[in-house]
Amino acid sequence: MDLEKKIDLVTRRPTEEVITRDELRALMQTNEHPRHYQGFEISGRLHLGTLVLSGYKINDLIEAGVDCTVYLADWHSFINNKLGGNWDNIITAAKYFGEGFKFFCPGVKTVLGSDLYHENDEYWRDIMRFSRQLTLARNTRCLTIMGRSRKENLSFAQYLYPPMQAVDVKYLGPDLPHGGMDQRKVHVLCREVYPKLGWKKPIPLHHHLLMGLEAPDSSISKRDREIAAKMSKSKPWTCIYVHDDEQAIKNKINKAYCPEKVSDGNPVLDLAENIVFRKTKELRVTRPSKFGGDVEYASYGELVKAYTGGELHPQDLKAAVAVELNKIVAPIREHFEHRKHLMEVFRQAE
């Protein structure tokens, strides 16, 4: 594969940022199989934002020849009190996460945090080396990577989270650490501190944060709004899970925020752009002839132009997107139908 094709795969949507593209080009010119990783806290069931959007990007990277790893971060999940802070349940749930990514992203490797850290003295020495370069104030500015405000009363363990995540990069994906835009702060921290330690400066890749189904909070800044509005298991009514059946998907999309003629902050259009049009070359809208009859949109650009121009009603958009989302979710849903034991841990934790 030629260099331009590789760069196109790495930078295509849902990628929103690579720090920096010039460094990416140099990396791809000199390293045939750069090392990547994306880490995940282990909590509830997988949804479109976790598995499908991230999986699309991982599949792009694998196609480009990148050596990809999904990191099942049980220590970080415990620190952040996922699954009630029950470490045994977190490790059990990690097997479910690993199964999902290995199915959706053939060729990806999975690593459990406990396996990485167990009897790895050098990792913990590197935590100390890295942490010596930080002031408490600089560390605190990265605490929003956990989705928490710095104003909250955090446990001391949570202050260990940013140095651990930063050093994970060295051991798991020193070339291309990957995450949503909400992971940007800690990746920038890596680029600040690594050269001071004589470590190679990584080239972070950040993808779009898929919106949840509710209206975004317009009272906060655009960047904070994007993070707050992301699809999240902590707000299950905003999620489409990979286990949702056809009717559940229709019901959730029908209730989704979708203001007429408005594209900005519209989660249904966000799903169309970042999930649907990654899988299909056209979106077909089926509607009665009295409302204009059936129509097909060959690109997201065509779709959004029709929608903002009032040619496409929100309910028709929702119906079409729900049909396509069900097609995308169906094979994942079927895969787990034969592996229900992997999800038992979530019923136990409820």
Please describe the structure with a list of short key phrases separated by commas or semicolons.
single chain; 350 residues; alpha/beta; Rossmann fold; Tyrosyl-Transfer RNA Synthetase; 2 domains; six-stranded mixed beta sheet; two-stranded antiparallel sheet; 16 helices; 49% helix; 10% strand
Describe the structure.
With 350 residues, the protein is an alpha/beta fold. The protein folds into two domains: 3-207, Rossmann fold (3-Layer(aba) Sandwich), CATH 3.40.50; 222-349, Tyrosyl-Transfer RNA Synthetase. 49% of the residues lie in helices and 10% in strands. The protein is built from 16 helices and eight strands. The protein has helices spanning 3-11, 21-30, 48-63, 74-79, 87-104, 113-117, 121-131, 136-140, 161-172, 184-193, 222-228, 246-255, 267-279, 300-308, 314-337, 344-349, and strands spanning 15-18, 35-41, 67-73, 109-112, 176-180, 205-207, 283-285, 295-297. The strands form two sheets. The protein has a six-stranded mixed sheet. Strands 7-8 form a two-stranded antiparallel ribbon. Strand 5, helix 10 and strand 6 form a beta-alpha-beta unit. The radius of gyration is 21 Å and the shape is globular. The model has no long low-confidence stretch (mean pLDDT 94).
Under CATH, the topology of the largest domain can be stated as Rossmann fold
- The low-confidence runs, each spanning 5 or more residues with pLDDT under 50, are none
How many domain units?
2
Termini Cα gap? 48 Å
The largest beta-sheet arranges its strands as 1-6-5-2-3-4
| Class derived from helix and strand content | alpha/beta
Which architecture of the largest domain per CATH?
3-Layer(aba) Sandwich
Number of helices: 16
- Evaluate the radius of gyration: 21 Å
Beta-strand share of residues: 5-15%
Shape: globular
**Roughly what percent helix?**
40-55%
Top-tier CATH class of the largest domain? Alpha Beta
Largest sheet: 6 strands, mixed
Mean pLDDT reading: 94
The CATH homologous superfamily name of the largest domain equals HUPs
SSE string:
HEHEHEHHEHHHHEHEHHHEEHHH
